[in-house]
Specification:
7-stranded parallel beta sheet, alpha/beta, Rossmann fold, elongated, 28 helices, 6-stranded mixed beta sheet, Udp-n-acetylmuramoylalanyl-d-glutamate--2,6- Diaminopimelate Ligase, Chain: A, domain 1, 699 residues, 4 domains
Length: 699
Amino acid sequence: MHPKSIYIASIEPRSGSLVIALGLMEMLKGHYKSVAFFRPIIPDGIARENDIDFMLRHFELDMPYEECYGATISEYVESYAEGREEQLCEMIMNKINHLHEKYDFILIEGYPRSTLGAIFDFDLNLKIAKNIDTALIPIINGKSKTIETIINEIQINAESIKEEGSVHLATFVNRCDEEILGQLKEKTAEDEFEVFVLPEVKELDTPIIQEVADRLGAEIILGKPEQLEHLVLRKKIAAMSVENYLTHISDGGLIIVPGDRSDIILASLLSFYAKNHPHIAGLILSGGLRPTKNVLELINDFSDIAIPILAVETDSYQTAIALNCVEARMTPKSSRKITLAKGVFDAAVNKKAILKRFKESSSEIMTPMMFTYKLFERARSNRQKIILPESGDERILRAVEILLRRDVVDIILLGNPKTIKRKSALLGLDISAATILDPDDEGEKREAFAQKFYELRKAKGLTLAAAKDALMLPNYFATMMIYEGLADGMVSGATHTTADTVRPALQIIKTKPGISIVSSIFFMCLESRVLVYGDCAVNLDPSAEELAQIAISSADTALQFGIEPRVALLSYSTGTSGSGPDVEKVAEATRIAKSIRPDLLIEGPIQYDAAIDPIVAAQKLPDSAVAGQATVFIFPDLNTGNNTYKAVQRSTGALAIGPVLQGLRLPVNDLSRGCLVDDIVNTVAITAIQAGEARGGKK
């Protein structure tokens, strides 16, 4: 979990999320020097979203409005319908990460879930919060609900958050009826997470004169700033005699009256000053009419005008309709409401408990979107040059455009420039930023490469003629480009076999010191974590020594990509429960791997269920530091590994990224001939990261 962000999300509209945001922001501002406010999704058709505008102005946050939101709801719906949801989510994540670079903490407020529920069959807030790895606070609207209903909602939301693997920081029940307040607090006191119950406060859900004036575009004829904070408890149209009018008004009423009814206007003022008559909130003069000069002078002769007087151009009926549409809001001008909201929050919320739980909270959640996002960010931060020898494949060209648009890597394409440009133009692709190199036009370079290859392999019986023949093949030419430092890594395999990709790398680049075998892993991106599977693509039936090296290489690869390696060498037996040559091979591989790398957490032989399930692990290997929490799974042979990764991928919908080759001094990666464009994009990003590491973390 990112240590400096909190995500609050209303379960339904009118839950009072701004009150919670106000209280939390004040708390955070007391502990962090700079705090940002962000809304991933905002409504359409508004110049400035209310909550963002309020937080910026009230707390004087030093950030532009445009940095405070991700997208509008229509933009999200459109991207979802067109299959571009991941790109939009990546944009939101980019904005949030940019804020993390500039601010000490981010308070994030989601869009009401039930509003989005009419569009999506999933909880969009939970999805966004999960992908940015932040602590979550759901807000429940308790108004007019029974204790049983509220508790049921608390439990349902807690279960949803737990299932997603997110950190549940607290639950707020806001606008709760006074009569059930005490009982609800008692019934939720023993919950495993904090539940804070806030009462319904009528004043916070009641518009004030200023809000009416803003909504109606009214002119303020008379009135002091503090009078514009009068609560509008009722609305009345005055269309009767003064005698009858006085019997129909009440405290807090906002009276709509034609601007030429001087009798009603004066009677309203007198009523306010009278001891035993109602105190109205204010007057709205309708019809575009204004009191005469003499009447205004009489009003101004009062020592202190106690009620504000507004004027509108619409008639009384139209004004009444517009007035009914005015909803209570809290604006930076609502000083009374702000003070009241802060008081309600402070009285109901144990701030120390929130901060304590926040500091103690931790999460190892890693969604597919988070993982791929981090791939692109790492590749972008240490830009590398990746060569792609299969430029004739449409998928390669489409992937190149994506990579260039995302500004992730520099690309070298091998092939005829005219042919490549013509094909990309027909596909409507812009790959102009790629370097296109035609080996047929690079006679001197090809000759030098052949000579170098011959020198490297002549002790193995390679002839110069055979070296020259090999350099006619694009994979050999591309591999020599890497060897000579003209490119940093290669991705191939969309139209070539694995052998065609790996053989040149083994002959020219060779393996790392201490590693005698090239192997592969897949990053298995499950819903809330990423696992490493090896070897599922290269080695048919590795020996115990080779299996140990695969385990070590896989652990190093996991660490290279931010995954803490806890290595499980898999078998049909856990510990000493079974026997046979296959079990013995895994046991021996485990012993070898531990002796070579005592710094790694390694367990084997172990069954898959004991490696991944804490409950099973507690029964089979209760004292193991790996069982039940393995992150790296080493399969005993290719048959088991290949079938398992495909079974998991197809049955769970997991994103499988790979195969990623490991053990080479410089990175070369193989694609499946059935690969998708996204597979190519991800593999190129991984290759770029490997290249940066191989060259000491910098170019």
